[in-house]
């Protein structure tokens, strides 16, 4: 694995960024929406940008309508912390993606463990539940492994984008220094969620 000594892109530069996510349309859900909306904005602000996401039925038709590239892989399965290591490493090195953004710590672990040394910097989203959940609480040996992997990802990622001050507090409680945390609240697309005009006297 890497030590946390990677060089983060200087402020103002347009990075070569690879988003690594298990949660992406055409799948439906909150994390899928989060990843997709960020991807749309990243694509406009990066020098080069792509998404690495799982293969899904209907994905080819969905991806064809996007303004950015989506690389689909079978390897990005449910066991993301391990199955994503080689795909991330190969793609980041082959295409020169120096920065990875991972909406979830499990794919951050995969990027941190990339044997090629690429990506150079790993940034991670933080939401709340994934910092608290104990999915194997009934079987302590497996929960212990899960906790160690999570601690490693939290301890070695170069930076975190927390969706709230509460989530930033969870990161701090887990030992993440304030200098590695930026709070960026989830937004609303005003072009999609616009107030409707109502008749006079209406509700």
Shape label:
globular
SSE pattern, N- to C-terminal: EHEHEHHEHEHHEHE
Q: Please summarize the sheet with the most strands.
A: 7 strands, parallel
Counting DSSP E segments of at least 2 residues, the number of strands comes to 7
Based on CA atoms alone, the radius of gyration comes out at 18 Å
Annotation field: number of helices? 8
Average pLDDT value? 89
Strand order of the largest sheet: 3-2-1-4-5-6-7
Computed structural class: alpha/beta
Distance between the termini: 58 Å
> Helicity range of the residues?
25-40%
Q: State the low-pLDDT regions, or none.
A: 3-10
Summarize the structure.
This protein has eight helices and seven strands; from the N terminus they run βαβαβααβαβααβαβ. The chain is an alpha/beta fold and 203 residues long.
Primary descriptors:
seven-stranded parallel beta sheet; alpha/beta; disordered N terminus; 203 residues; 37% helix
How would you describe this structure to a colleague?
The chain is an alpha/beta fold. It is 37% helix and 17% strand. The chain has 8 helices and 7 strands. It has helices at 30-45, 59-64, 80-83, 85-95, 105-112, 129-132, 140-156, 165-173, and strands at 16-20, 48-54, 69-73, 99-102, 121-126, 159-162, 181-183. The chain has a 7-stranded parallel β-sheet, sandwiched between helices. Helix 8 links the parallel strand 6 (159-162) and strand 7.
């Amino acid at each position: 694995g890497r030590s946390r000594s990677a060089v983060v892109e200087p402020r103002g530069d347009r990075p070569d960024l690879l988003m690594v996510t298990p949660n992406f349309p055409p799948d439906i859900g909150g994390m899928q929406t989060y990843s997709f909306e960020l991807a749309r904005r990243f694509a406009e602000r990066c020098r080069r940008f792509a998404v690495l996401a799982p293969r899904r039925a209907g994905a080819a038709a969905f991806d064809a309508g996007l303004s950015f590239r989506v690389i689909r892989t079978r390897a990005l399965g449910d066991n993301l912390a391990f199955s994503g290591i080689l795909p991330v490493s190969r793609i980041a090195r082959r295409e020169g993606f120096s920065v990875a953004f991972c909406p979830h710590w499990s794919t951050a672990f995969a990027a941190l463990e990339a044997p090629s040394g690429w990506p150079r910097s790993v940034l991670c989203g933080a939401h709340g539940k994934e910092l608290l959940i104990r999915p194997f609480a009934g079987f302590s040996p497996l929960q212990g492994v899960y906790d160690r992997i999570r601690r490693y990802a939290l301890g070695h990622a170069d930076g975190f984008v927390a969706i709230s001050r509460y989530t930033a507090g969870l990161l701090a409680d887990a030992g993440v220094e304030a200098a590695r945390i930026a709070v960026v609240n989830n937004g609303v697309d005003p072009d999609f969620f616009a107030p409707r005009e109502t008749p006079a006297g209406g509700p």
